[in-house]
Amino acid sequence: MVSIDTVYQRVLVLANKEQRGYITAQEFNLFANQAQMDIFDQYFYDVNQFSRIPGNSTGGSDMLDYLEEKISIFEDTKNVNKNATGEFYNVGAGISDLYKIDNIIYNDNYSCEQINSNQLQNILNSPLLSPTTYNPVYTLKRSNKLFLYPIDLEEKITVNYIRKPSKVE
User: What is the pTM (predicted TM-score) of this model?
Assistant: First the structure.
């Protein structure tokens, strides 16, 4: 998500036509950060596209492997704790450079399945699908609030995620 201030700054730079090709260091940083994020976003789109076609077994020439290698540089892991009220895990507060969550690991052993809010009531009300400590599920809501089910889980939660590239300066 792009802040309104970032958009405003870029529009100001583009609207200033009197500089005749000269840009300041701050303007360069604005454009470089935008270009870097465009390229980074394109990696995920390309992975999706290249995963649809057969790969190449020749060393170093499989595009899917090449893209996943580029993305792997940005993979990171972080332990998160519940918020003060104990309702949810605030992933956004613990991970400032979060781009995309890869997976959630509970108690170093159990991978949590992500479900959307529409599925949540059906799963919680079903005796066969109901989450357990061995089969936990989570929903991710605005502001990167992670709700883990069953609710009484108190063990360590590890978030494997893709971080944003560092800002250009």
Answer: 0.72
Burial 54-65, CB ≥16 within 10 A → b, else e:
eeeeeeeebebe
* 134/110 Cα distance (integer angstroms): 6
56 near 41, Cβ under 8 Å? no
* Contact criterion met (CB below 8 Å) for 72 and 48: no
CA neighbor of 112 nearest in space, from 130, 131, 138, 86: 138
What tens digit of pLDDT does each residue of 107-144 get? Answer: 788 888 888 888 888 888 888 888 887 888 888 877 67
Give the ranges where the chain is alpha helix by DSSP (H).
4-15, 25-50, 63-72, 91-94, 117-125
Amino acid 74: pLDDT: 92
Element (H, E) at 146: strand 145-149
Give whole-number Cα distances, 78 to 60, 90, 106, 162, in Å. Answer: 31, 12, 12, 11
Give the alpha-carbon dihedral of 163, 143, 49, 57, to 10 degrees: 40
Whether the CB-CB separation of 156 and 108 falls below 8 Å is answered with: yes
